[in-house]
Amino acid sequence: MGHYPRSNLRLAALLAIGTLILGVMVPTDKPEDSSDHTISLALELEPVSSTADNNNEAEPAVENATSQSDDTPEHTKLSYIILQDDNLSAVFAKLNIPARDLQEILQANGSDTLRRIVPGNLLNLTQNEAEQIHSLEYKIDPLTTLVATRQTSGFVIETLKKQVVITTANHTASISEEFPSLYKAGKQAGLSDNLIMELANLFQWDISFALDLRYGDRFSLVYQEHYVDGIKIKDGKILAAEFSNSGKKYTALLYQRDNGDNTYFSENGKSLKKAFIRDPVHFSYVSSSFNLRRLHPIHKKVRPHRGIDYAARKGTPVVAAGDGKIYQASANEASGNFLVINHGEQYVTKYLHLSRFAKGMRAGIKVKQGQKIGYVGSTGWATGPHLHYEFLVSGVHRNPKTVGLPNADPIPDAELNTFRVQTSGYLRQLAALNKQIDQSGLDASSKTGE
Ligand SMILES: [Zn+2]
Prior knowledge:
Helix content is 17%, strand content 33%. The chain is of the alpha+beta class. It folds into three domains: 6-49 and 56-161, Nuclear Transport Factor 2, Chain: A, CATH 3.10.450; 165-273 and 407-440, Nuclear Transport Factor 2, Chain: A (Roll); 283-397, Distorted Sandwich (Glucose Permease (Domain IIA)). The chain is elongated. It starts with 5 loop residues before the first helix and ends in a 10-residue tail after the last helix. Residues 305, 307, 309, 388 line the site of zinc ion.
């Protein structure tokens, strides 16, 4: 659909309605069925800009005024997509349908939904030979359709629900020179953006997707897909996933606890959640070409670098790596705007060069893991926008990757057996995927990165 000048839209709409009237009055001569005088009007939603500058009534743009349907040869069929500010009476007026039909439909039980029609939804109508509405179909969502049918006693309204069929799918992929990020490798394997983000969330406590990926890293996942009428409408849950990062394997298995909670656990029943997430800046914001240089850009000499740098645009959100309490929210010449968070007795995290703090951040405030605390900037001694992140254990700078951190609650011993039974099928599927990738030779594991 192009952006037609408004006058053309109007003309097209008038022409279409003209065609419709003609079609009803004079049966078209279709070669394959001479009695057929079905006309389908496909009216497309007008490119919606802002309703504020619409001084005229929204008019339907006409995509196709002559497509034929053989479904009900005795009925004229109309299709219409609800526009901004439409109500049913306006739609009926546009389509030249008598107001009496509208009244009859709105008298039926269950017609409330039709008093609140939603822009973008599809309306299908059929008219009988007396030009009365025979049936009205209103698609509420991909699964739900309201159908009003004329009976001798008046219209009868039913709501039809389509059945969702849930199937299991799987994918496997590797990080390679050609597809060097989780996002690129995931897209290459056919994963949706949502699924890629969910996969990263599963392993956010163990893997830095911003900084730690290596060529040859690989991942496999088993997940649900939702289908309606044979068409995929969305991805469901990830049931099982595995990520091999620098040769170390991490597994996430979905398990329904006895108390009904759905939670992911590692293969041995440990919780995936830990006290700290690896990246205080979401990996999707971090510049992958960023090269950790030990030569300090301002002092031009090599100095010990005691933190981790994340290059990202100014204004990118920075989140707390773990639950804790803000110890300092301050500024100085070297660090610029910086935050220090205490996490219990031993652990401290620091966030430097922020452009600004998130609202309400000051000493003494409690923060939650993943909570937004500030924004990436280049205040202090920084040549470009980046977050300088430090992780300290008992006052000593440490690499969070190599520090053993306590997990959240594991599966209780009493449930371990059930867990093993419930998840053994997933493990077999992951193993089969690994075999596949080994045999196919798609694996780029011979290469090593950076
Ligand atoms: Zn740094």
